[in-house]
Amino acid sequence: MIHILFIVCSLLTFSANAGVQDFCVADLKGPDTPAGYICKPAAKVTVDDFVSVGLRFSGNTSNIIKAAVTPAFVEQFPGVNGLGISIARLDLAVGGVVPMHTHPGASELLLVTQGFITAGFISSANSVYVKTLQKGDIMLFPQGLLHFQVNAGGVSSVAYASFSSATPGLQILDFALFANNLPSKLVEGTTFLDDATVKKLKAVLGGTG
């Protein structure tokens, strides 16, 4: 009986450990595939692959939207490769806004740590969910849905956004429409905006056509 128990325990231990891979730190020199980056050789992995200090610092909000997003996605933080998590810092100056955008690859959880932020998203049924958040509040934005954040106070605001993917992706609606070479006539026809408005927005955001 003792021999049988020993064999069973040995088999269970082998089965439990056979398929275990603790982590897959991204080899950023390799290709970025739908399954993520290939793994850096274990012998070259260091503790710094699992630590990021980039979110200590405020982003530069001297831009048209008066906002900055500092990501810690797989390209900046190789340790998250394959783990289905990542994070970013959001800085909003007074009057700052993160325009309507989507993350095709992840849901987002926003935690406000300073100031006041009005945030919201639009469902696929065009229902609108908006709330003004303050320090300590969190809000969820489901994957792929249009959402936004706006500074809602007279002071700079800071928040941290965590994502359910190491590569959440980003598409900003305004830039998708007006910051490329999509012909103005097509933009006008698909948005019902007049020619003058489309040309003005293209000029502001660097688009052509």
TrEMBL record:
Give GO MF terms, alphabetically. Answer: manganese ion binding
PROSITE patterns to which the protein is assigned, alphabetical: GERMIN
- Signal peptide (from-to): 1-18
Q: Which cysteines are joined by disulfide bonds?
A: C24-C39
Q: Where does it reside?
A: Secreted, Extracellular space, Apoplast
Q: Which UniProt keywords apply?
A: Apoplast, Disulfide bond, Manganese, Metal-binding, Secreted, Signal
List the GO terms this entry assigns under cellular component, sorted alphabetically: apoplast
InterPro entries given in the database record: Cupin_1 (IPR006045), Germin (IPR001929), Germin_Mn-BS (IPR019780), RmlC-like_jellyroll (IPR014710), RmlC_Cupin_sf (IPR011051)
Q: Which residues form the Cupin type-1 domain?
A: 53-199
Entry keyword NADP: no
Residues the record lists as binding oxalate:
H103, E108
* The keyword Phosphoprotein appears for this protein: no
Residue sites binding Mn(2+) per the record:
H101, H103, E108, H147
Q: Which SMART domains match?
A: Cupin_1
Q: Which branch of life, at top level?
A: Eukaryota
Q: Which family does it belong to?
A: Belongs to the germin family.
Q: Which PANTHER family match?
A: GERMIN-LIKE PROTEIN SUBFAMILY 3 MEMBER 3
User: What name appears for this protein in its UniProt entry?
Assistant: Germin-like protein
Q: Which organism is it from?
A: Zinnia elegans
Record gene name: ZeGLP1
